[in-house]
Design a protein that fits this description.
Elements lengths: L8 H9 L38 E6 L2 E6 L9 H4 L4 E4 L7 E2 L5 E8 L3 E8 L13 E3 L14 E4 L6 E2 L2 E6 L3 E7 L5 H4 L9 H4 L9 E6 L7 E2 L2 E2 L16 E7 L8 H5 L56 H19 L1
Parallel strand pairs: 1-8, 3-4, 5-12
Antiparallel strand pairs: 1-2, 2-3, 5-6, 6-11, 7-10, 8-9, 10-11, 12-15, 13-14
Helix pairs in contact: 1-6
Length: about 350
Amino acid sequence: MFRFAPLVSLTLASVALAQTYSATYLPSNAPKQSEQGQSGTNQCGSGHDQNSMCQNAYINSLDDWCIFAPPQPGPDSVIGNTERIEVAWCTKDGHGTRLIPDGAITGAHFVQTPDYVQVTGVGDLTLINIPKGDAGGELDPHGADGNGNPIGGLVFSSAFGSIQQMHEWTNFVSDSEFCFRACKDGPKAPALCQHIYDVMGCEWNMPGNYAPGSFDRCLGDTGEPMGVYGTSTFHQGDPTTPAAHPAPPTSSCTPFSTISNGLAASAASSGASTTSGASTTGASSSAPTSGSVSGSGSGSAGASRTSTGGPSATGGSNGAAPLLGPGLEMMVAGAAVVLGAALVA
């Protein structure tokens, strides 16, 4: 049905997973730019600015996460054209980024697992410069040259304790759907945050809850690595495309009425800002609705619209020292999935 991953690939996978990160940053000590050719900055200050060129994203909690999206509006700002220059748009003030205006997100579902954190949902993402009708694409810390999409994009999380850089992550976004997963450093991370399935979209790469009209945070089981089915590994372009893995079970879910930061869409379009270094303004965490719900998260039916129409080559990662030349890394990326799957099992 699809290619069998030979056992020799495990050797290559172990080499890929043995890479060491040449730099690890915190928001407080990140350089102005972490990669050559970067259009934005990693020194973002605090507050918010709707013209910010900050390329630091966060995935901390239901009301504190970001996605990457275009810096400028317009019909040519489709993700496929702007993936190298995307900037961070966040739900919470204080990171020195742009804010996602209230009302743009109409459903969001945050899940923390032992190995990664993930947020999935829907909304009107034309409010963050994605053109209407754009099926979207994938952002990751690798890109064709190892500098990332966007170039120099960094991701941080405090979900596992103190704030830390998440070296492996993947983010899909279209005009109406988004998903973002950041993996805890370790041997499972490359497989669980695999970035080679860029035409497969959110619901295939990150099965979960995409329901509109609801907001919740849950604990969850670690899911199966995308693209790995027992001893076989799917590759884009194979004659048969397998179904997505089932969404892993969730528990201890707490529903919320909404998420809000106090920024109206009209203010977002006018370039409202607070001074860098100023205290957080207008931020609010919505109180959870009464009670706590336990159960399994529901996956959305149907194919995701977030796809670029063509695969991107893989490279190293921001802050990582790639051990192999670009010509070998695509082969190794697929092999790494197999080892990662064995470690997850």
